[in-house]
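Hello Y.,

Per our agreement to keep a running log of every chain we model this quarter, I'm adding this entry. I've kept the format consistent with earlier entries: sequence first, then predicted structure.
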Amino acid sequence: MSAITVPLSAFRTRATSVLRDYAELTKLRVTSLIVMTAWCGYFFGAHKAGSPWLTWGLFHALLGIGLVSSGTAALNEVIEQDVDAQMRRTAQRPLPCGRMSRMHATIVGVLAAVGGSIYLAAFTNPLTGILTFLTSAVYLAAYTPLKRVSPICTFVGAFPGAMPGVLGWTAARGRLEWGTLVLFAILFVWQFPHFFSIAWLYREDYAKGGVRMLPVVEEDGRSTARRILAYSLALIPISIVPSLMGMAGKVYLVGAIVLGFALLYYGVRLAFLDMPIASAPSKLRARHVLQATVIYLPLLFALMMANAIRS
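Predicted structure for the entry above:
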């Protein structure tokens, strides 16, 4: 009995550890958010076409986009292995810790990113496969190296970061339309308060890793706070455009305004706090901004989908 129990227990422990490492390598939580956003894009693309959205097409789109996102995350960790090793928040990832080899992670990343793009081209349409591959390429070839060069990296990275909704839409429709621009704009602007608040919280960590985001290179945080405030404010009119375009109804309109002002409130609290950027109160308010952005986006898209108007 014990001879069987011990190996089974060891196997379960090892399997759990391996799964956890793959989840870290592919940034499962980030990939889940990307897939959710792509789902929203697919929903509205199918809605515009007057087609059902709960189809095998949705499955193929989300699987392919999820694969490319996972592969891109893995390759990003391969490129930034030395950076991750210097930062406390990332030092326990499988590559810096040596639990996974760089070659293994590279193979996983390439297979997922390239294979996912080919899968999308074959099972949705070529446009979606090409756009998804280009999104991955820009993220890895432009945003990732720029993180160690200039604060402009956040602006550059916002372009591939805003693509999931577009990719979901094109997977359903096979073309770029005005609705794709609306979803792109919402995601593009949302990223700034989200990522600036993360960089604010982990400013010292990023500095150790040589990541030159805005909160790292400025001394007092005022410019970062102003940008968080400005982009949070800009989200309010941008987020109501789906109602103006007939994509969603009045319930969404009211909800988008309420969510927008709620996010703005936390940005205002951070911007008008007259304390050093490294102080505990400023970090607490930056964390509140981060939490608000994490809650804001899923709620906004869920409300948009729930209150969609048949075209």
